[in-house]
Design goal:
Order of helices and strands: EEEEEEHEEHEHEEHEHEEEHE
Helix content: 10-25%
Radius of gyration: 18 Å
Length: 269
């Protein structure tokens, strides 16, 4: 973990209210795991006071040499509005890499990735890591979903990596009409993945974890939540986690990626 001031390499629209920002940062990030995150703050801004957490979307390399990280984010509040206006060359305070990432091993050959909306942010990095670990790209599937076409992101990135791509939207404006969990269930009728990875809204993660449990498939989920500090000091991101004697873990240090079997997601709002 390292705190530094990083230069913005680019900050460009990537969809409806969605942006990609490239940050030149230290070599610690070259060893980051997919699913880890960083917290950002605009140094000269007094509001908002607290840092904001963002998944690492992918590593930036130039001719194999590490340059920094890219973050995919959605403009939804004061901080992301200000962030979307920050030009290349401006500097930003970054702390990371933080948290625990997804399990990636050479034995995982046929994973199913599931992403809802901006929950796709860590999944591009995950797919790249899985391929580096020896997974054949045509052995994996990515199920992408959202309310509408505007919410379905990064499909070309996965297709360029050779992953089978299933797209759903609740209003039918892109792909199949329905929920992303329906696409996963349909895929499982004819396929037996050795791991399910998911990131998105908590109700979606709850549904995915139950589908995986019913099929007896290992499942890891990345939890999206507000984190006041990102390092376990404030204890504000509690989650029901059966591994702990107290019955609770914390997303920032025990996650954000968890074995779904450990969690009780139903009561979260």
């Amino acid at each position: 973990m390292n705190q530094e001031t990083a230069e913005i390499l680019w900050n460009a629209p990537a969809g409806a209210s969605v942006y990609r920002i490239g940050l030149s940062c230290g070599s610690e990030y070259a060893r980051a795991d997919a699913g880890q995150f960083a917290t950002l703050r605009l140094p000269e801004e007094s509001s908002p006071l607290l840092r904001r957490p963002f998944s690492i979307h992918r590593l930036i390399r130039n001719d194999g040499e590490f340059q920094g990280i890219e973050i995919l984010y959605k403009r939804v509040g004061e901080f992301t509005r200000k962030l979307s206006q920050a030009p290349a060359g401006r500097r930003i305070d970054i702390l990371g890499p933080l948290g625990k990432g997804f399990t990636v091993t050479a034995s995982i050959k046929r994973p199913a990735l599931v992403a809802g909306g901006i929950g796709v942010a860590p999944m591009v990095f995950l797919a790249e890591k899985l391929i580096q670990a020896g997974m054949a790209s045509d052995g994996a599937v990515i199920c992408l979903g959202g309310r509408s076409a505007d919410d379905v992101l990064c499909a070309p990135d996965f297709q360029a990596m050779g992953l089978k791509t299933r797209i759903t939207s609740e209003d039918g404006s892109i792909g199949e009409k329905g929920r992303v969990t329906e696409a996963l269930s349909d895929w499982l009728k004819d396929h037996s993945p050795d791991m399910v990875y998911a990131c998105g809204p908590v109700p979606m993660l709850d549904a995915v974890s139950k589908i995986a449990e019913k099929q007896d498939i290992a499942c890891e989920v990345s939890i999206e939540t507000v984190m006041a500090c990102g390092v376990g000091a404030c204890l504000g991101c509690a989650i029901k986690d059966t591994r702990h004697q107290s019955g609770y873990g914390h997303v920032c240090i025990d996650g954000p990626v968890f074995n779904a079997a450990r969690l009780e997601l139903t009561d979260r709002h």
